Each structure stands twice: as structure tokens, then as C-alpha cells.
Amino acid sequence: MCDDANYQWRIARYPIGNVQPEDFHWHVEEIPEPKNGEVLLKTHYLGLAPVMRFYMMGQNPSGETALKIGNVIHGRGVAQIVKSRHPDWKEGMMVQGQMGWQTYKVSAMTPQEKFFVMPNYGPNNKLPAALGAGVLGMTGLSAHAGLFATGSPKKGDKMLLSGAAGGVGSMVSQLAANVVGCDVVGMAGGTEKCDFIKKHGCRAAIDYKNEDIAAAIDAHLPSGIDLYFDNVGGETLQAALERLRMHSRIVLCGSISEYTRRDPFSLSNYTRLRRTDSMMKGFFVYNHLHNWEQVMDDLAGWIIDGKLKAVQDFVHGFEHMPRALANLYYGNNMGVQCCNVRGEPEIWN
């Protein structure tokens, strides 16, 4: 990555359907200088998530200011403070937070940007800084909060997990199986991904691209579902609702199968919850920020103990960010989709 300028991806037009190359504008400007109370951040890694398409459409699903044509695209990343005129943030610190799609950023480190210092973990007092772009970042908090705070998993639960090869799903499968002791059946698209999820916590895999989903659920979970962790919504959620055991739980994490539909999906069988005294509950990751330090310590400890394999799918080069975002909707990623902008820092204070 060249350090001669600040490179940015901005919104060229609002997307219709999946993002297209014409939706993005490549912009180059001078590296900014921090003023009193500000720092200059140098981007090392950026994370990608399906929600970024909504940002590009001018929506604000996470509460940030809605973007307009010409704005830098929202996104979280891992950066190093290379200049500081802020009393609380020192040069050399590695942080993660709202960087946007750019290679440098000047920031006053406001609460709205949700910056966190990245501590050194693990053997030799360090896990890679790259993990802050996903597994030890908002994706990790989503997986932890969705499973533990929302799903209330119990040992022996018969669990169905959609989107099991994705960023959140590939973590939830391992936490449910290896930390809690659930019996996890995962769903993914294609043979390669199904093989992948069976190595990451899932007893069995359902290939939603090539199998009848309802029949496959019945085959792998004949007695029904105690816990369904939903990353896709749509017809898969509808099928799960027909197969609930007593006092089961459904966690609403994502609904990627619905994001590019022109007509909203209508869930017609939610009343199945009543018949089994079951619960369907959503969560918003930012409502769990107060648990950040404890969750990151939990996840780092499970990585070090071997209970959680950190899976991040990297595209190398900031110029490839648009294609990486499109790949999320094509289902081409395994694990957390990230961009390696500069790699690991030489010195980490």
C-alpha cells in the first residue's frame, strides 16, 4: 500500500440489488494532519459485512449518519495511531473502530466512532492485529451476544445454524459445539463450504444449494430444533419454525437472503411459536458494547485454548474492496470477509 496519499472508496450511486463496480468511486487526497484533540490513523485491515450495502443505499441501520452520494463508505477497521495530539490516545497504539473505506483518517476518537484499544493477547503476548477486523471485533461480539445473551444455549441442545460458513456463523458453530456442547447442524452452499463447516463445529451439513432444506432438516434433526440461529431469514426461517421442540429459541441475527429482494419476504407461520412455548428474539450488536472487554477476553482465551479457530477470508489490496463486498452476497466467503490493507504493524505499543 502506497503511503503517499489517502486513498478512499466513495459512493458513486446508490446500489440497486447487489453492488456493481459503477456504484463505487475511487478518490485520492492528501494525507490529513490532526489538530489539537485529534489523531492520525493509518489503516492496516478493514472488515466487510452485508450491512455496508445498506450504508451505500443511504440507509442507517446501525444508527450512523446516513451517507450521501460522494461520501466515504462506512466500515470498521484496524489502524495504528501514527500521530497524536490527543491526551488519551498515544502514538503506536493499535485500535479498531469506524475507519471508513480509506487508508488514513483523522479522528477525535469520539464515542460515536466506537474505537477500542487492541490489547496484546496469547503466547508471546500477542495475537495478530488482523483479528480485530473480525473475530476479535464486531463480528466476534455479534457471535457471542447472539449465542449466549440471546440464544441461552444449553449442553445437548439440538441446534440448527444457517449461514454457518459466514463470519458470524463460523464462530457460532464452534462456540456452540466446543464451549457449550450443543449438537450443531449447519447450513452452507456447496460441497466445499459444507466440508468446511464440518471441520468447524458442525456435526452435519445441509447444502442449501443442492438439497431440499425441509427434508434435510428432518433427516439430521428428526426430533426437532431446540435452538435455531438465523443468519439468512426467508424460507429457511419459515422451515425452522415448523420444526420446533418445546421451549425452543430462535435467534434473529441476519437475513441476507432478503436483502436484495424487491418485495419483502412475508413470514406467515410465526404462530408456531405459541404451540411449543417457544421464543424468537432479535438483538442489535451495539446494545452489547458494555460487555466488550469481557467478550474479547472470552474469545481470545478460546482461540488460545483451541476451542475457536479464527477464520478470516482476506482479500489483499485496498483496491479490491468493492469486489469483496459483492462476494458476500454471492456467498463466496468462508469466515469473516476482510481486506488486508497493509498487513501487521512493525511495532505495536
TrEMBL record:
Organism phylogeny: Bacteria, Pseudomonadati, Pseudomonadota, Alphaproteobacteria, Sphingomonadales
UniProt keyword NADP present: no
Protein name: NADP-dependent oxidoreductase
Annotated keywords: Oxidoreductase
Gene3D superfamilies: Medium-chain alcohol dehydrogenases, catalytic domain, NAD(P)-binding Rossmann-like Domain
Annotated ranges, domain Oxidoreductase N-terminal: 8-109
InterPro entries per the UniProt record, alphabetical: ADH-like_C, ADH_N_2, GroES-like_sf, MDR_fam, NAD(P)-bd_dom_sf
PANTHER family reported in the protein's UniProt record: PROSTAGLANDIN REDUCTASE, PROSTAGLANDIN REDUCTASE 1
Domain spans labelled Alcohol dehydrogenase-like C-terminal: 167-299
Originating species: Sphingorhabdus lutea
Entry GO MF terms: oxidoreductase activity, acting on the CH-CH group of donors, NAD or NADP as acceptor
Domain of life: Bacteria
